[in-house]
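Newbie here. two chains, one complex. Structure please?
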Amino acid sequence: MTEKFESDLLRGSLDLMVLSVLASDPQYGYSIQKRLQEASREKVRLPAGTLYPLLHRLEADLLIRSWLDSSTGRQRKWYALTAKGKKRLAAQAAQWQQYADCMKSLIGNYLPAS
Amino acid sequence: MSNHEFENYLKLIGKLLQLTRGQQAAISEELRDHLESRVAELVDDGVSQQEAVSRAIEEFGDAAIMAKNFQYVTQLKRRRWMMRFATLSMAGLFMVAVLTMAMWPTTARFGTPDTALAQIGGMSGVGPQEIGEGPSAASQLDAQMEQKLKRPVTLIYDQVPWKEVESELEEQFGINIVLDQSAIDDSLTADEPITFDLRSIPLEHGLIMMLKPKNATFIVDHGVMVVISRDNSDRPEFLQTKMYDCRELLNKMILVPSSRSLGGKPGLPSPIVGSHAAGKSSGEPRAVQAGGNEQQRDQETSVGGEGFGGAAGAGEGMGGMGMGSGGLGSPAENIETKDNVLLDLLKSMVQSDSWRENGGIADARIVNGILIVNQTRGGISAVDRMLQDLSFFINSQPGSAKFPVGVEASPKEPMPGAASHPGANGGDPSGSETDKNTVETASDK
């Protein structure tokens, strides 16, 4: 089942997705895209036209920082969470947990039996 | 990897971005890395180079949309920067203003920078300065009503029941009017016929005049016009409170010793006797002698503390009150005394029977230069008028605001209001007589 999420559903959570992908270690744009794809089992495929502006916005918000590094053999722009970004991630994750629980109890009856 | 499609795509995005060359280059570099990584991966999976490039670009999405998304981020950054700059500038300006106000000498003859004196008689009816989040909700409602009361109205009625007049005005001005049943007598009921004819008059005065023959008037409470009997207008619950910023007015007042017989009227230069030379002497002759020598020079130039020193000296000379004039010239006491002069002026000129001191119920105080008046609505409007005219007079004739003080000011002592009215219980008449005589004698020498 590789049906994609509706974009309306994704819109409010893209920031949180990118922040969580960056939580464990620094990444560059392409690897962030791949990680999201893998973690969501191909359900989330963030186009570059959305991903890069989003990264730049998060950086302007001081939630992530970036630097150029060529130690992998190629000049790349790497991103990592800032302290502020870590805080935001924790707060948003908690909020999403509650949101998901709430949705679950609301729509539980209408889910196909599995 | 240098592919035409690639380069064209990146160039297009760069063009659409409208950024500086450096910013464009940085973004292009990052996107190039992404495309190249993707192409390399696809080629690894066995896709042909040509096919891989096309797919990678396709996945990338529409160049215009990406450019638009980037544009949004750039605008956001720019707006944030401007906000930050604006906030800093405002903070800076505010600091400068605060410092200027703090450093400004309170005794400066030209007063502090034009603060809110314009509020005197002004319509707002709320506090002179915002405390916390602003004036209370009730005051804001009242202020809106006060604005509407200033608007011109034409009131022409021939035997129209009050309730119809009421609803017509409510509609026209968007206000609420109620008859306070607990505070109105038989002379005005909902069916009372009103006959009235007055054109182009502020609503407030039109209504006052219209209600007067019905022995009624109104107050404003929480933005509602409450019609009450005139007999009840001085009930404590119907008193209204208004604040006036009088700091500038107080600053511009100059206290000079009273000498009625020599023309001690406010606005006319009053001779000053016994200025700083009076020292601690309590005996008449010495104080007057000093005054005699320096009278001419001090007459026009005494201001602020020095002027007050003169006042104290004169007090000693006239009444023989026997208090030292040592520290009396300090600004703090100076202002305190001006407060009393202004309050006494107010209470003797505006509905004098209505004030608490005179057996009435109204009250007025000055705290840090803010005059707080609790009066009937009519009283407030009279206070408005007096303060407005007084400050206009003082502003239009700088240096003219000389207030004769007979003796050291204290609430119970005679004050300029009294002093400017011969026959009122003003300064000690015998003292003034003596004063006059001795000064004349001194000048004759």
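Moderator note: Chain A has a mean pLDDT of 88. Chain A touches chain B at residues 28-30, 33, 47-50, 52-54, 56-57, 60, 74-77 (CB under 8 Å). Thread marked as resolved.
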